[in-house]
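Notes on consecutive records. When two proteins share a document, each keeps its own sequence and its own token line. Never mix them. Below: protein one.
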Amino acid sequence: MAKRITLHQPSTGLTKQGFYGFSWTTLFFGTLPALFRGDFAVFLGGFAVLFALGIVTLGIGSLIAMVVWAFMYNRYYTRKLIERGYVLAGSPAENAMAAGSLGMTAPSVAVTHPG
């Protein structure tokens, strides 16, 4: 089951939702979640790979690839946001849980200033 974590981009002030854990939407809808999240390169590349696998293996390869990708996509998407400068902006407990699941040694967290 996917879990949601808030991410904040300090230089622009933008906030996005990151995810980690198994992606049921990716399992059932293939590359459409990438399209809805604005991850166009992954949408197009994933669609091409799934289509090619489907043609070559009569659909079996696409099903297997979708199961594998459902385990990987949320982590991939959230780590890409972090590489673009986003930081974890949830509670300390949420940040620690997300950082552990994302394979981060030290959580990159948003610093909040009082006032």
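Protein two starts on the next line and is unrelated to protein one.
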Amino acid sequence: MGAGQPVVSLLPPDHRKARFYVPEAEVGRLQVGQPVSLGCDGCGGPIPARISRIAPQAEYTPPVIYSNSQRSKLVFQVEALPDPADALKLHPGQPLDVRPVAGTSR
């Protein structure tokens, strides 16, 4: 490590979020504020979170020309925020399982 380089980088719990991708066919069932359940290896039980952002357009498009037949390959980035106390169980870059909470879809 060279001089002037950070020794440690901290991410406060209130800034931790789950970022995941939802297929185009499913994004219409989600809404900002909707509860989701986060799970990970070693986290114990499910971690409650709420969707805080849904991308207004596809974040990834396949390397082909867009057409209606390729629409199922589009995905949208979604972010969900856990409570800061629960966020302490999460580590940046950690793989997560994300599930909608039953009975909350529109």
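For the record: The first strand starts at residue 18 and ends at 23.
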